[in-house]
Every structure is written in C-alpha cells, then in structure tokens.
Amino acid sequence: MKPPESKTLRRDLASIVGDDFVLTSVPDRLAYNADCWPRGIIMSRGRQLHRHQPAAVVQPRNEHEVLGVIQWARRTSTPIVPFGAGSGVCGGTLADNDGVVVDLKRLKSIVETNHDDMTMRVESGIIGMNMEVELNRRGLTLGHFPSSLYCSSVGGYLAGRSAGQYSSRYGKMEDMVASMRVVTGAGDVIETGPDPTAASPRDLVPDCGPDLTQLFVGSEGTLGILTESTLRVSKKPSIQLYRGFQFRTVNGALEAIREMMQAGLRPAVVRLYDEFDSLLAKRKSAGSGGPAQGLTARALTAKLGEVAMDVLPVPVASELKGRMSTVSKALLNRILGQPLTLNALIDVLPADCLLVVGFEGESPIVDNEADYAFDLLGRRGIDLGREPGEHWLRHRMDVSYKQSPMYDAGAFVDTMEVSTTWSNLTRLYESVRRALAPHVLVLAHFSHAYPEGSSIYFTFAGFGADTDETLRRYEATWATGLEAVARAGGSVAHHHGVGVSKAGFTRRDHPGGRALFEALKQTFDPDRILNPGKVWSEAEGTEAWP
Amino acid sequence: MKPPESKTLRRDLASIVGDDFVLTSVPDRLAYNADCWPRGIIMSRGRQLHRHQPAAVVQPRNEHEVLGVIQWARRTSTPIVPFGAGSGVCGGTLADNDGVVVDLKRLKSIVETNHDDMTMRVESGIIGMNMEVELNRRGLTLGHFPSSLYCSSVGGYLAGRSAGQYSSRYGKMEDMVASMRVVTGAGDVIETGPDPTAASPRDLVPDCGPDLTQLFVGSEGTLGILTESTLRVSKKPSIQLYRGFQFRTVNGALEAIREMMQAGLRPAVVRLYDEFDSLLAKRKSAGSGGPAQGLTARALTAKLGEVAMDVLPVPVASELKGRMSTVSKALLNRILGQPLTLNALIDVLPADCLLVVGFEGESPIVDNEADYAFDLLGRRGIDLGREPGEHWLRHRMDVSYKQSPMYDAGAFVDTMEVSTTWSNLTRLYESVRRALAPHVLVLAHFSHAYPEGSSIYFTFAGFGADTDETLRRYEATWATGLEAVARAGGSVAHHHGVGVSKAGFTRRDHPGGRALFEALKQTFDPDRILNPGKVWSEAEGTEAWP
Known about the structure:
The structure is a homodimer.
Chain A: H1 6-17, E1 22-23, H2 26-31, H3 38-45, E2 56-58, H4 63-76, E3 80-83, E4 100-103, E5 110-114, E6 119-123, H5 128-137, E7 140-141, H6 154-159, H7 167-170, H8 173-176, E8 177-184, E9 189-191, H9 213-216, E10 224-232, E11 234-235, E12 239-247, H10 250-262, E13 269-273, H11 275-282, H12 297-311, H13 314-322, H14 329-336, H15 339-347, E14 353-361, H16 365-380, E15 382-385, H17 387-395, H18 404-408, E16 411-421, H19 422-436, E17 441-449, E18 453-463, H20 467-487, H21 506-509, H22 513-524
Parallel strand pairs in A: 2-4, 3-4
Antiparallel strand pairs in A: 1-2, 5-6, 6-10, 7-11, 8-9, 8-10, 12-14, 12-15, 13-14, 13-17, 16-18, 17-18
Helix pairs in contact in A: 1-4, 3-20, 10-16, 12-13, 19-20
C-alpha cells in the first residue's frame, strides 16, 4: 500500500466539491473502514482497523460534482468506491487505502412524483425511510421495506438488486426501476432508459434492443455512479391483512405457498420459518420480535437454554438454565462451540413451522385475494388468526439493530440469502443446512416467493475463542455454504448483492457472465477506477476476499 | 455485391448440416427474399426481387450444427442472418446477396415442461401455435398470442421483444423468459441465466450482477443465435370473461383504463379503438372481424364508402357508393390518394370509442377482478355487454391474413406500435396522427396497457400510382411518423422489434445505448458476421434502410 498523498489529494478534491466535503481526518476515514459485512465487524472488534480506511471521503452534491470526481480519478488512476449508507453486508463499499470513497448522501431529493404515471424521480443518496415518509405524505409508497430501511439508500438498493419485506407484491428493485441516470467510469452521463430530459418522459417499458437499465441494476458501482432514477410507485395501501398459519412440516407449507403463488395471488408478505426458527418464535421469550428477530445475544441464549431443556443431556441443560440470565463468552462457547451437535439435536425436535402471510392494497381486490389465500392455507395448515401476523408486522424492523451484543461477546451472526426453483428447493435447503452444520448454528426462513420458486434466508451464528479463530470459522462457513449452494443448483445471492464476499462465487450463477462483465468494464470503466474487486473476481471462492 | 461462390459454399455448408439442408436454388433463395416488412412486399410486387436473396439458406438441426455454421461464417467472413418463420414486419431477417440465412425451424421441440416450477424448456424454431397446442394438451399455456401465432417462432418472439394480445396478464416475452441458450458470434455457447445443465435448474430470478438474459432479449440475432430458452408458463385458464364498453372520447376511455391498471387489476386484454377505428367497427360491414380486423381492400373501401356518405360532398359520396362492390386502383386512389382531407374529415366525425376488455384465469380470483373492473368501466362508460368482447375473441387472428388484396390493388397497409407514459399519451397520439395525416389514412387503437402507460398501435393505409411512388410515400410515412414519435417523447417500438426499418431511430430511445451496443458487438460478435445493419445503425432515420 502506497501512502496517500494527502495534501494534493485534499486540494484536488476540494476544488471539485468544496473543502467542507472532503474528509481526510483519521476518525472520518475510520468511519468508512467497514460496512455491515460481519467479517469487517469481527475485524474491527479485533482492532484490525487499517485495511479498508480510504485515503479520503468525498461528498459531491450533484451530478456535475460526481462527474468531476470521476474525471479526477481517471487522471490520477485513483480507485473510487461509490457509497450510499453503508448498510451492505457483503463488503460492497470497502475501499483500499489508496482509494477514495464517494459518499452520495447529499444527493437526497425526491425530484418529482407523477401521480398520473405512478412514478417518481429520485436522487440516489436519499435514505429509504426519509423517502418513504415523504411518499406517504403524498399518498404514495415505493413498497420497498428492507430491514435496513432506516440506514440504507436508494442507490444502494439499485446497485445490489435489493428486495424488501413486501417484495411479493411490489417486486424487487429491478422490477421497480424504469430508468437510471449514471455517470460512467468513462466520464459519460447516460440515462439507461427513456430520456427524462426530453420534452416528456418516454415509455418506461424497455421496448427495443438490449436493455441498458437491467445492466446497471446490480452492477454495484463497478460500471458507473448512479445519481438519479425513475421508479414505479404505488398508492399507499388502505388496508393490511396479516395472518399466521401453522404447518406440520416445511415441505407441507412450501407446497401450500407454491399453490398460492401459482394461483396468481399477490401476498405482500410470505414468510415461512423452519422448525427451529419457529420453535424459537413459539416460546415467546421476553424481548423476542418474532422468529429470527430474537437473535440477540440475550434472547438467543435464553431461547437456546429453553430448547436445551428438551433436547440436551440433563446436566448440560441444568447448567445452561442456571446461566440463562447472563450472556457470557463461556456460555456462548458452550452453545455455539459445538454447532454440529446442536444442529443435529434440532433436527430431531418435534416442531411445527410458522407461516406469516400478509396482503395489502385497496378494497375489494385485496380482500378477495386475502380471503381466497387464507382459505387455501387454512385447509392445508392450521389458521392461527391475526396475532402472529400482526406481531411480525410490529417487530419487522427490530432485527437489524440487535446484533451488536453478540459481537461484543465474541460471536458472529450472519445471513445467506439464496434461491432456486420449487422443484429444487428442498434439496437446496437440506444441502446448505448440512454444509453449515459443522460450523455454525443454522436457522432458516423462506421468503420472497415467486410462481417459479422462492428464496431461502439462512441465519447462522458462530463463535471463536479469539478474533483469528472467529475469522477462520466465519470464512469456512461461507466457503462451505456457498459451495453447497452452487452444487445444489441454487443462486448464490438473492437480494443482498455480491460485493466482495460473493465475488468469487458468481461465476457459478452465470457461466456466460464473465465475458459480459469484461466487455462492460472495457466500455464503461476503461481505466478500472470503479469499485475494484466487486461483483466478479478472478480468484475463486473466498480467495477473492481482501 | 460479390457473387456467391456457390459450389464451395454448398460443399462447406453441406459438410456441417448435410446436403439436404443447404438450399441454393433460385426459388429457395427467392422465398427468403423478404419477410413481412411491407416495404419488401411492395418491392416484390414491383418485381424488385433481387436485393435480399441470400447466397444460401442453411437449416441446422441442433446447437452443434448452429455452432458449426457460426465457426464457418467466422472463417469465411460471411454475414449470417438467423431466421425463424419470417413473420417480422421490420426487415429484421433480410440478408444481402453475400449472406447466408440460418433457418432454425428444425429446432422445434418442447424439451421439457415442469409443472412444479411452471416453466418449460423449448427450442427456438418451434412455431407459436404448435407450441401452444402442445402446452394446452398438458394443461398449460404460454399466454403469448401475437396475431402472427400461426407463422412465427419462439426465437423470433424473444429476438424482437414480442407482445401477444394477452400481454397485460401474461407479460411481454422479456417478462416470460428466465434464461436463453445462445451460440454467440464469438463461437461460445452460453446460458444467459441460471445453468439448466447443472444438476438442477437454478433460480430463475436474476439475482446478482448485470442481467445477461435481458441483454439478449431484443438483440435480434445481432449478438448470437438463440437455440433454446426456459420460459414461464401458466395453467390453461378455465374461464374467459370478455366485455365491450363505449366511451364518448378517447381521453375519457384512457382515463378509465389507467384507473383500472393502477388499481392492480390484471385484464388479459385491453383494447381501445379510437373514434374512426370504432366507427368502422360499429358499422359492421360484411367480412369485418371487428375494428382494424376489417382492413381488407374490400372491407375498407366498403366502409370508407359508408363513412363517405356522412362526410363527403354529395357527388363524391355518390360515386363512391356506386362503386363499393369493386376494388379498383382508381377507387383506392380516390380514397387513399388524398389522405389529408380524409383524415381531417374523420377528425370531425361524431363517433364514440369502443373498448374491449377481457379477463381469464381461475375462479374465484378472476371473477372478482372482472366484476370490479367491469363495474368501474360501466360507471365511466356504457356497458355494451358480452357481444363486442366475444366478437373480438372469435376474430382476433383474422387481420394478418387479409392484407394481400390491398397490395394487389397497389396500396399498402402497415402498423406503427409506439408507447409512452399516461401523462404523455394524448400528446403522442395527436402528434403522430398529425404527422401521418398528409401521407396515409390513419387508424389507431390502444392496447398493452401498464400501470405507468400504454402502447398505441397505429394502422395506416396509403397508395401510390406506381411502385416507385408507393415506395416514396411509404418511406415518407415512416420518416415523418417516427420523427414525430421521438419528438413527442415516445418509444419508437413496442413489440414488433427494430429490424432495419427502425435501426436509424433507436438512438432516440436510448441515448446511452450506442456505446453498449458497440461493446456487446465487440465481445459477442467480434467478426461482425451476425445480422449486420439491424437494431442499431450509423445512418440516421430512413437513411439506414437498405
């Protein structure tokens, strides 16, 4: 690593964005040292703070300044990393020490909402929640509710093909976007779809030739910096109908979900928790926000203690029970240190699965669909009434803000969102559980259902005696897990993006994609300044990790 | 043009596909001299038969042979043109005399249908109707019903971003496709989506990185030859509910359609005929299959005669009336020779618009949606009951097979399908009508409605005294029409593709697309052998016409 030439750098960047918006102090650079990739969090806790501190952070306020930064980066061969709100969990915004982070949060306006066309034009750096509040005020919704809603940006959603909790109704970001405005690494400003600077917006459906918009969605800042987009919006729904159902087996529940989706029903929310995840939910420990929401250190240990009463040898169980009120390293080690045993025990637990389904929109269309769906699910499983659904609704945002204590105690928590077709879903689920079992405690839920398949959202927790062991276990977990996903014919990412954590695995998803990515880089980023190492990597598997 | 070296060519190609499947005779080459681009038909009728006869036609039976043909073409620098069934209306399959047409009709199998995932794997050359019949036998439907269904292929649908008559429910081809298998011009065989040769099919949703599938959709054989695809299918519907509504004005009807689409209703069919098109329909002349369906020479003259009774000066009208039973050049000239007057007269006609709406699928979801939609439309317009809808349903495929007599009489008929957002729709409609009025008689209907906008399908008829005058008028019509579309902020194509007829206009749709197309060509067709001159052109407007 060559040391950044700090003074020239500052002066150059200040001439583009103004001195107030070039950050080079140690605390500022430290603040951009990690996104929410758990590996980075583990490293930070272990005081490994240096590797990803950028040379500088620059905060342009408009497209003109973004272009200026890109032109400067080309001249000086400086790698630049577009940055929204840093909530990514795959290391997609990590810079090297000679890189400059381009923080886009000053591009934060809703440019226009169009109620005739049900579209909006919005800048990239706006925080999801701020945008949604303003849309609601105008009687609209984007319908995009990732659990990171309060700390993530529209640009990030588009860059990473984000899906919100209501994606079954409103779609993923790639379904919502009609056009993006991008400053490419070649220094061109292009509108990927119809040109909204024309006298009037053109058709939003890609009608002829190859589709430019869908090229830039999911490109994660490797081809250009996204400044604005035109997104489809919906009326703010006037009714929400949520309900819980209980099924004896995961497979029975999946069958019912498949039937519902293929009948043309459009639930906003479909979440099926597997046996163990449901078990945690059912015991309703204090502080639990529902299945998987309760994965805080205290709640996890408390719940595991309860589970232990059923399944562990009595002496072990008693010990756990006695210590349920404290979260100690030793206890976590006891629980998470032997994941294979614990996972195996969970496998033989007698437990049912919980399905949460929600509809939202306008009467009478939504009432009719919900009636039909609830009737269908009630005949396949047991109707638990409104409470489980509404409980989920109240607590759906909790999970993202409860993980810190786990890390404090030396453990880690992470998620792996994969997907496949219905006919392959059980195989994928079982393969990945089996692959992860030796390394971490595994929970799963199924969400984001489609007529042709579903995603699976694995949540896992692990523990190492020290930072190095934790990092080793963390890496082994991902290497084994994504290898299993690829072997089982699943897609290695569903809505968290690729970043750097999966960049060594994407070739498995798209065998023809390498040539395409090279061609795009050659055209849109000829000097290779844009977010190096993300999305695609020469190195395979976790070899691609920085 | 260099003359094809016929013997070497035959021998070379025969060594790849077998001698029976290399066609070089004059009648064979003549058969591929034109697709259904009206300009080609006009030229053929005028005995201008030579320009697009290929050097040979080759008919590979599988991917291996397709690859062989591409490798041969690279070695010999021979331009090759992928060909499905030749129903395209934009010259997308026209070859030059030194080119070889690659006819894919022998790739005609449904490889697999998967009822769990509701998908099918199908070869490119299968004719739409043959595929649909077989799907129906298995209880399925693709839901894709272009009026060319009997004479068009799946590969052509994908190549040109085709939309069928039921697209509002089932989507356009780009919505239905999960993955394509392509032999690129670089000689690589790639699967654009998840790899179905893996142990099991991967997820069908593009989950990470840039989207390869959506790059090849709409590429019209300029990047590779499509051999197979995985498409989403649906259950064959058990009910169909069709109905007609009458509105006083186009704008009033469009407002009602917009409300229906934005309420989340999913009609299969939405077709609004403008005042004149509706007038033709209402008069129910013999042989009419409904609005625009009746645009045969006999029906048109008969109807125009009737219209004339209302709007033309009495002597002219009488003369027309007296000659209504014959279709003569003189009569067509009389009617179509002064389009500006006729269009102006039509503008002041007192006439209502006809809206045909259809729902299909399963009870009770579809019944509920149809009830709600029919109620909504009935409050905005006048409910005409089931007959207009069912009349349309019975005659919806008639139009494609009735145009020949018009050409025989020296006239031409063509269509221009454009699209834009709701807020811009009236402006686009009026601009294009005004631009076309001096050249041709113009009718229009609105179909393929979306929450954010709609397409407009202009049908126009013109006449020239001889082939040259007809060609001049035809070119002037398109040049003026598409220029008006671009100026009014519309998209120059909605579902007929680009071919060569619009290749000089696509830059208007996608200002950033030129660099992308060049990059893709460089990567996937480095020797520039694939379908030259299509989709994008250096020349502007009709200068790009061959």
